[in-house]
Amino acid sequence: MPVQCLIFDCDGVILDSVPVKTRAFARLAEPYGDRARDRLVMYHAAHGGVSRYKKFEWFFQEILGRSITPEESAEWGRLFAEYALDEVRACRLIAGAQEVLDAWRGRLPLRVCSGAPQEELRVVLREHRLENYFDGIYGYPPAKARLLARIVAGTGLPPDTVLMVGDAVTDREAAEYAGTLFYGVGEQLRGGDFPWGPDLTGLNDWIAKNLDGYFL
What we know:
Blueprint lengths: L4 E4 L9 H12 L4 H13 L5 H12 L6 H21 L6 H8 L5 E8 H10 L8 E5 L3 H12 L6 E5 L2 H10 L2 E5 L10 E2 L5 H7 L7
Parallel strand pairs: 1-2, 1-4, 2-3, 4-5, 5-6
């Protein structure tokens, strides 16, 4: 069946914002020492696509040895946004992203499925003048797999006609859970059993080859 809908992660797929958020995690953990900082950064890098709030929970439980309180979670969320948001607003797009969005806007439904908080996600895409490219912009909560499945169900399309584009193992696992196609982006996903590119410069050609005459 042809590709009939495109769903994109945001950080590392549309926006080159992963390094910005890595610096924000490092800054949050810095008061707890170099080892604590480095462990949080490594955990963040290995769990792309997971909500920052889940990463905060991990840090408190595994590094500090106790559960995070709701007040602490809210404060870390506020600080994270303070440290990262201005840089994310200014960061560039991933190579090929603008061309992909321009090529398929109005031809295929386009959605965003991200682990970032939904309202923050919408603000960032609006400030990059990308909000109107998408038929829906969805962020945390819930977790990525459940969120993607919900988005796919809302399209009314067979899952195997929907393409999820992501840069993290979490995105790949979400695609498996929801039953969608998957296109991997970036070094973390190199060598998998799915189509892949270092950025989005090859995605238009891949989509065009998998339309099976859908627009003919």
